[in-house]
């Protein structure tokens, strides 16, 4: 298979930067295919004096731009961290994908315009075998290019290459419509190409809109991959001294470039230096294992006080009455005898909007007051940034 042969030939197995290699390969192959189509269509258009084929040739030349953008995007993403960008330039790939997505939308809008023009001002189409064969050649080449880029996109989970793939497939749809119209023109004078074009345009615009959403989402700060979240949380199971974790937040600075922070609960009976050694070891080992930068904040927890454990258990039962409370942590007492403050933080789902937070927390406080009239509950509210 041609795709597999190209990948094996131009991307060595032990290459250091696989992502950059795949991105560059996708861009270079795209440039090559579009330039070959441009030259063949331009020469054919000049020889046959065909304006349609000549115009389609320059359309292929403009498609070279998306491949160039792909290469530039991967080149920017590969730049190391610097003073102005301490976490690297990985999001450059997302920007490249977004630009190409807008180019897909542009194709859809242009096709609507041309299709509507054909309906309002019908043009008699005359079937020409050479023109038809050239269109078929273009369809085959673009379909292969779209499949090729989609294969590369899956290999490295690239939004930019996925956008390039759909850019090629949109050209296949447009050219297929033109080719179909040429065939149908042999049997009718009805401007079927214009009406088919409108339907196809709507499809391209809808797909382009979804493509924009997919590429812009990581730029806006989308929720982290559930598999990564579970992998991070599961990694703590091998550390028996860490009895709980909470407030995991994951930041993405490009595909495969993650910074995560988490709070880890350790019994307060463990000496500080020993606890620090445990946390430091976990940070380094989990970061290396998952290919991320993990930062752990240590929370000491009193596990030797029977009253705290009993009260914590009862508070846990009360919180079950509030379904939007996902978890609670940092539970502790302040004060003496019966007049104490109960302090803890709750993590709530995003169904609790900011303007609802105060009333929601007060409802929990009132419920706790019913159980512990002499205690004053001080509750902090945290957001769930995972939503898995």
Automatic annotation (TrEMBL):
- Write out the transmembrane intervals: 21-39, 94-113, 125-145
Where in the numbering of this chain does the Cation efflux protein transmembrane domain appear?
28-220
Where does it reside? Answer: Membrane
In this protein, which residues make up the domain named Cation efflux protein cytoplasmic?
Answer: 224-300, 310-379
What keywords is this UniProt entry annotated with? Answer: Membrane, Transmembrane, Transmembrane helix, Transport
A Gene Ontology MF term for this entry?
monoatomic cation transmembrane transporter activity
Concerning Pfam families, the annotation shows: Cation_efflux, ZT_dimer
Record's bilayer topology term: Multi-pass membrane protein
GO cellular component entries? membrane
- Principal subcellular localisation of the protein: membrane
Q: Does the keyword Transport apply?
A: yes
Keyword Repeat among record annotations: no
Coiled coil ranges (UniProt) are: none
Task: Name the family the entry cites.
Answer: Belongs to the cation diffusion facilitator (CDF) transporter (TC 2.A.4) family.
What protein does this entry describe?
Cation diffusion facilitator family transporter
* Native source species: Fonticella tunisiensis
